[in-house]
Structures are given as C-alpha cells and as structure tokens.
Amino acid sequence: MVRSFASYLQTLDPTTEVPPTDLLPFRSRRAVPYLYSDEDIAALTLAAQTLSSPLRVLTYKTLIPLLAVTGMRVGEAIRLDRSDLDFERGLLTVRLSKFGKSRELPLHVSSLDALHAYLRCRDRLHPGLKAPSLFISMAGTRLLYCNVHGTFLRLVRRAGLKPRSKACRPRLHDYADVFVMPTWQLIRMRTSRERSA
Questions:
Q1: Which residue in the list 56, 73, 142, 171 is annotated as catalytic?
Q2: pLDDT, tens digit (0-9, with 9 covering 90-100), for 16-50
Q3: Is 3 a residue of the active site?
C-alpha cells in the first residue's frame, strides 16, 4: 500500500522515494485447510466420550459429525434453533448466515436419526427446557463459540490429530472443506466425463 501511494506521489514530486519491492519479506498468513478424513472424524467423535458430562458427550458426538456432513460453519451450527430442524421434510434451515443469507440443507436419514436421538436424550437430561437453541450447554443455554473452540482443541489432542505443517493444523473451521472438496472433485469428474463423451 505504501509503495502504491509513494508511486502516486512520485508523479507529483519526482524526488519522492519509492520503497523497493523486496524491502519486507512477504508472509502469507492464510492457513492451509486441514482436510479431515473419515478416520479423523471418527477419532474426534470417540474422543468426545471422554468429556465430563453425559450432555457434553452427547452434544459433541452429534455436533462434530453434523459439521462434517453439512459443511456448516461452527457459528451457524451453534445459532441453530430447534425450529430450524424439519424432520418431516428432512431439512435444516441455516438462517442469516454469511452476507445475511439463509439456506436449507437436506439431511440424510442417518443425520436425522442422530439429531432425533440427541434431542430425545437432551430433553431427558434437561426436562422443561425453555431455550430455543438446538445445541445446549450444561446450563441449558446456547453454546458459546469460545467454549466449543476450547473443547474442540482438547478433542484434537485426545484424538491424536497432528499438524501436517506449520500452516496446516486441525481447526474447527476446516469442516466446510471436508464437505466442499469431495463435492468439487465429483463435479470435476462429471465434467471430464461429459467432455470425453
């Protein structure tokens, strides 16, 4: 930015010095997505069984696979209300997400069964719950991002997941890439088949 501004000033005043391009080393701060395998997701789900309370075990054993199969961001998942889940139509509505848009996610029967089991057990552990949220804390309130993130890091350690490089570490936000990559690869395979036909 400074170089661009200095270059502009140099057109007005030729004595203006423009810093050289190699003055500061360029460092990319963008993390490389950690693509979770089915085994990684299973290990995280298994690690959730070591959590301190039955409700936390139940919540993370449901939340982690749901993130993996839907590609939702964690913020979207913890903002879900129970009314966003439509068992009859097999849809999950994500409201006012990125750029204020909403979308419907179709769920497989196995995901619907897991969510139904979660709600049944959750309601048994917290009878008379008034909170509208789908996923709840031990206090019966909506999950907080900072708590979900901290729990996820503990589960990563217990599951034995290791960084693949300095820029590629297991992160909570990388679940969307687990969902997007196979979809993208499927589209690419279909396109190449159509071209060859």
A1: 73
A2: 888 777 776 655 566 788 888 889 999 999 999 99
A3: no
